[in-house]
Amino acid sequence: MNLQLLRVHAGRNVLFGGAIMNMTSEPTKKAGAASLALEAFQALAQPIGLMDPSGALLANPAFAAMFGDHNGGLELPPGLAFVGPTSDRSSLGPFSRPDGRKFRLTVTPLSAGNLIAVEELVDEGDASRSIGKESESALPDRRTFRESLGRLLRERDKTQGASVLVIGLGRLKAIGTSLGNEAGKALLHLVADRLRSAIRSADRFGRIGDDEFAIFQVHPEQPQSAAALAEHLVDLLGRAYLSGGHLINLDVCIGVATIPGDGEDCERLLDQAVLALSKAREDGPGHIRFFEASLDKQSAERLALEGDLRRALAMREFSLAYQPQFNLASGDVDGFEALLRWRHPKRGLVSPADFIPLAEDLGLITAIGEWVLRKACREAANWPDRMRVAVNVSAVQFRNAKLCDQVSATLAESGLDPCRLELEITEGVLLGDHASVLADLHGLRAMGVRVSMDDFGTGYSSLSYLHSFPFDKIKIDQSFVRGEIDEASSTAIIRAIAAMGKTLGMSTTAEGVETAEQLSRVASAGCTDIQGYLISRPIPPEEVASFLDSRKRNAAALAAE
Q1: N or C: which end of the chain has fewer CB atoms below 10 A?
Q2: pTM for the full model?
Q3: Which domains, from first to last, does the chain contain?
């Protein structure tokens, strides 16, 4: 329990080190009841405080949030003090906060102290007062926004149209973390300033997640006014920010739910807008989606898939397939990439594109990734000595696990030579705690493990990453190999990457090679390796030995001719 213990001191309250009180360890019914009471006290949305005769104040989080100052203490109204058990219930106030909200303190004497409750006062005709009117640098959180949204919905003119917009700013948290605390706060304040400048006085906004903000818009013309505001926000929030000497761009997507078209329950409206945001993110940066009834069905399907995914590892529904990697200089296969497969008992084969992002969202990717690493190393240990195995490692695994220790233990358990293991990472791994990730990468290199950069060319700062760590291999994304943008431009990009790799001492693998023409193009561009259906589709582990024997026999037959 994270209850804050404070003391009244000369009209000012000083935080006593954020004292942690936990009574759940006492093996008695009395202690258990006390623990339950403290848990309930902490969970109450109403600001509540308990003051003992010495003046010490036990405040629940809502109370601390309401009266917290910038120095880690509390700033309370005058007159609050211990009144004694013989006193009658009293009322202090009304008081006004700088944001215009009014409240009264009710002090109730108890046997060993005072119960202090905060009663917020609602002025007639001022139903919109409580969202987004905090200090210029402050942002109401999800709980505050939700509670105020519910009140606004209850008290608004029912003839007036309205909407809820949820704005997703891609990579805001990761970029803020990488910039450092002060620059991150400055970036957040810039975002808040732009939001504040875009809305009318009747509209309110709050921050409801690490990368998400919500706006309550009051306007009779819906959904037209919501669409106009959303389009303006995509343009405004998508413009570059200058924070801490860094020029930063954020991806903007927006989901919208309208009132009364999508209902008037605040929880449901927020959920609907978040669902619409998820669809907008699938469409890509800059997209806006309005909630549709079909999204509810998709949400239910996602929930069902979540449940199935949580059971899949325990039920042994995962397996690995291996796609050969072909070296152009030797003219032979020198390794395989391990690819995760999920065969659901009812759904059949589930695409990794559907369940890998979901596993990352749910925090399951760490456990799944550990299983993949152990399985791949055990199976590769039975291959010919020179054959390598490549395993993908997600950004979540770097954040949530001691990856070096895990890899070391897995290699010892399987008996696989470290030089035969290659870990593939994307540029997203290097966002966030860059120094920590680099330390892990150098630790892996010290063991003898190879490290490659996957999907090169599709991320954010590829060149700086290649200079920060000496990767063994660069894997060129298949979109360039297939010329999906423009064949001439794609070939030029492949040639530039291959030349850069050669200069830096890194091999270059062209992914997704399916035709002889693509092979000729990437080989002439200077790539050292290829991977794709032209060589082989992914094969199950039990077929790896026969696949290698078949290639050896074919090579011997060609040599004999």
Answers
A1: C
A2: 0.55
A3: 4-121 (3.30.450.20), 142-291 (3.30.70.270), 316-554 (3.20.20.450)
